[in-house]
Every structure is written in C-alpha cells, then in structure tokens.
Amino acid sequence: MDFQAHSLKSSDDSSTSSKLVLYSFWRSSCSWRVRFALNLKGLSYEYRAVNLGRREQLSPDFERLNPLKYVPVLVDGPVVVSDSCAILLYLEEKYPEKALLPADLRLKSLNLQVGSIISSSIQPVIMMGLLKTIEEKFGPEEQLPWAQSNLEKGFNALEKLLKDFSGQYALGDEVYMADVFLAPQISIAIENFDTDMSKFPTLARIYESYKKLPEFQASSPERQPDALH
Ligand SMILES: N[C@@H](CCC(=O)N[C@@H](CS)C(=O)NCC(=O)O)C(=O)O
C-alpha cells in the first residue's frame, strides 16, 4: 500500500510518472467499471489495492487522495480524479481513442442515463456500508430483500429503457459507456444477491455478450492482484 506517493498538493508536478495509477478494491463495482474502461481503451495502468475489509480507505493518506474515502481513484501524472463517473468522463476526453460515448446525441444521452441510474439509484442503495447498517439496525435477514428489491427496481427501468435499443450490447453492437456500468452491476446482482435475471431478458442477453469480452474478463474481481481466492 502506498497512498503517500500521490498525496502531493502540487498541481504542476509534471515530473510524476505519466503511467496511470488506479486505486481499486477487487470486489468494488465502481472500481470494476474503471478497470473495464481502461482495458477497453487499451490503457495500461498500475494497480494499487485499497483493502476495504481492513478499512484502508479511512487512512489519512488515502483521505488526501479522496476526501470522500471511497475507491476508485485514478492518478494521471498531476491529475487526481475520484468517483468512477468523473474518472470515466476524464478518460474519455484525455484518451478519446476507442470512444465509449458515441457522437450521436440521443445515444450519448442514453449512455449517460444508464450510467446515472446505476451510479445514483442502484449502487449507492446496495453498497456494503449501507447493508451493514441495515443488518445492525433491522437484523441480518433484512439485507438480502432490501438489496434485491432495489436491484429489481433499477433493473426494471433499465430493461424498459434498453429493450428497443439493444443489440449485442446495451445500445447496439458496439461496447459503450452504458456497458461499462451495466456489466459489473449485473454480475454483482447475480453473484452476490442471487437476482433472478429471467425477469430481465435484455439485460440477461447482453450480459452473456459481456462475459465473452477479454477486456471484461480481465477486469473481473477474481483476476485482480488483491483478490482473495
Ligand atoms: N460514486 C462513487 C461511489 C464509490 C463507492 O461507493 N465506492 C465503494 C466501493 S464500490 C467504497 O469505496 N466503499 C467504502 C466504504 O463504504 O467505506 C463512484 O462511483 O466511484
């Protein structure tokens, strides 16, 4: 763990190596989005693990990188960006090759809408910290139904939104930013929360396409250096 190296205040630290550094936790879906996008763009990066189980995100050094104390954080030379949405938009501008946002305005806004539904209305209401609070306040048996009902609400909306636009992937036959948000979220819904995907045929179908993508496979939790097998 080395959070110190990037907690420099200087904004003109151009001497810093230009290699991208990603602070990530193997099981974090927000980190997974960024890993998937970096792979799709063919950008190599150094992986720095932040062990959320050991609460390393609360250390003063990490807090200097992200005052909200969440992963992921991306460091690109003097630029430090936290929050997966901000990171993805940063990457899209800085590294426009293999664009994840299409030029067509309608498609672009649908991509942003899918990302926003997942990052604002699904992930925050099923995140580990909140589920722990639910367990403490209402009992362990309340965790799973809470997560499942919130996933179902979000997935119902996504299914309706995407069914007339999807192809091999969420918005046609190209992989876009919507897919970067969807793929980890669907995987987590299935693996961690036993979500019945037969209710969401479009999402279930495109998830089969994601599983075949080498960029997605390489971004999966169990392939990360900090994975506990
Ligand atoms: N909106 C943020 C959310 C980040 C977030 O919730 N990160 C979680 C892991 S997916 C985290 O660091 N949790 C640590 C904690 O709850 O203390 C993003 O998209 O990056």
TrEMBL record:
Reaction it catalyzes: RX + glutathione = an S-substituted glutathione + a halide anion + H(+)
Enzyme Commission number(s) from the entry: 2.5.1.18
Signal sequence extent: none
PROSITE patterns linked to this entry: GST_CTER, GST_NTER
Classification via SUPFAM superfamilies: GST C-terminal domain-like, Thioredoxin-like
Residue ranges constituting the GST N-terminal domain according to the UniProt record: 18-99
Uppermost EC category: transferase
Domain GST C-terminal stretches: 104-229
NCBIfam families: maiA (TIGR01262)
Similarity field: Belongs to the GST superfamily. Zeta family.
Descriptive protein name: glutathione transferase
